[in-house]
Amino acid sequence: MDAHPTGRQHVIPMAAFSLNPATDLQAMLALDFMRNAFVAGGCIALASGLVGYFVVLRNQVFTTDALGHVAFTGGLGGLLVGLDLLIGVFGSCIAVALAIGTLGGRGRGRDVAIGTVFAWVLGVGVLFLSLYTSSLSGSAGVVGISVLFGSIFGLQPTQALVASVAGLATSAALLAIARPLLFVSLDPDVAVSRGVPVRAMTAVFMILVAVTVAEAVQAVGALLVFGLMVTPAAIAQNLTSRPYLALALSAMLAAAVVWLGLTLAFYISYPASFFITALAFGGYLLSLLLSRLRRALTWTASRTCLPTPRR
Amino acid sequence: MTDQPTWNLLYDLQLLVHFHFMQNALVVGTLVAVLAGAAGYFVVLRGQSFAAHMLSQVGFPGAAAGVLLHVSPVLGLITFCVIAALGIGSFGSRLEAGHRAESAAVGSILAFSLGLGLLFFRLYAGTAQGVYAFLFGTILGISDRDVAVSLVTTLVALAALAVIARPLIFASVDPDVAEARGVQVRALSVGFLLVLALAIAVTVQIVGTLLVFALLVAPGASALQLTARPMPGLALSIAFSLCFTWFGLAIAYFTIYPIGFFITTFAFASYALIRVAKALLTPRPSRRGWTPIRLGDST
Q1: Higher confidence at residue B278 or residue B295?
Q2: Nearest Cα to A269, choosing from A12, A21, A37, A5?
Q3: Inside any domain, residue B193
Q4: Count of domains in chain B?
Q5: Neighboring chain A residues of B105 at a CB cutoff of 8 Å
Q6: Is residue B128 part of a domain?
Q7: Shortest CA distance from A224: residue in chain B
Q8: Residue in A with minimal Cα distance to B45
Q9: Superfamily of segment(s) A31-303
Q10: Is the ipTM of this complex over 0.90?
Q11: Which domain holds residue B42?
Q12: pLDDT 10s digits, A265-297
């Protein structure tokens, strides 16, 4: 089992599904690692949903992709020099996010340069992986897979604690700056003239993004960060254009997707990351359908000279 | 792969082509480099590097499905990439413009497709090494069937590219004028996306889903830095791509380290060197707001 591509170290007992939600929940939460996964996953999802809303609003989706790549290389680099994986992931994410924040803004239209750089970053990550695997020998190859695709069931109690505290702290920090950040994101020029410290705000936001990506890497992995940070926010924006409602919706959707994904993975025993991304994607398709439907309805309403519902 | 390189280059070359797996890797590598260099030139010219990124990531579950169904992973890659290319083509250019809603949609699709790939590998109960091979490329395990499929694919794609090359350059450089002249810009765009899908499908075998940029974008970008003339640029792009692949294969053979690292490093280093050299060599406009006018300068 230990050389498994999902990197899951635990052998999950195949619990039978009993149609009685109360006993099912009890059976699931009786297990230590499931409790850890639920608590840590919930906190990570909260932060991802909140920060992800602003990521989508500010059109910085591909920053999270780039940070995910950096997290892979940073985490393995950290392991290679004998540090903890998490120190590498957090350190590299924050450093690169600050670099993007200070250099960025000019980044658009230079996707060739950016793409080449980040392909190289991943290439270096592969080198680290092979150096680390050959220095340890044995089942260390799984480490790479669990960084790439997440290993939420493999969280140790201390890791789960760190993840929960970091997730809650990030959420609190984001909510504290939510109002001015919204202003800066929607209309930077007016925000500057009103005396909002835009540069400082951007830097703080980039740090929050970095911490959240580093968190999400533990839950769904470096490659699937999108699924947790972008998709719930995109669903929320499809459903409503009111900012605070969308913010709350995004956080709730992220938590719902993670918890449902964990539950499914517990009973069906396929990778949790797959269920989380698949649920999020299904929700996204559904939200697209809903918004199309609503647009079609308002269109017919306006065509038949009925008063259009005002939002 | 524990052979030591000597200073006798001829002997080294003999070592390199001694094993069957290495012969396969060299053949496929060469095919891939030619196709990726040629297609990559147009990718950079048309500013479609993002489409290349999307297609390659969608290829991952395709490869995994190919393994799962016991057909060649290349066939799975081709199927998924072609479907994705048709999807991108039907959405038109909105996807590449980087709008907020579209980039969120693309991000969601990419995460889902990678998750799907993971599920397929899990169903197959493959090893970690198998996943790495498709994500980051490998020089091992390219079967004779893969070589045959790659050969046919490359020939078809290159032939198609040769047919559409001239109007494609026209349409890429100035779409409006090309359309006014009666060039089928939209059909060309979809046709090129299909060629790109085939190119990506074979490239993934060598450098993996995540590192396709190194062979598909970096050579074209380097070539476009050096010359603006299409045919020399195209040739240069293919030459770069061949160099990266051959040196990458050779070094990966003599060391125990993954080929993806070497190819991306060459790609990054050459692109960065060319950019830096160009920045140093071109005279900069002065800070004071005037530029020294040289004799013979028409401006």
Answers
A1: B278
A2: A12
A3: yes
A4: 1
A5: 234, 284
A6: yes
A7: B111
A8: A112
A9: ABC transporter involved in vitamin B12 uptake, BtuC (1.10.3470.10)
A10: no
A11: 21-212
A12: 888 878 888 999 999 999 999 998 898 888 888
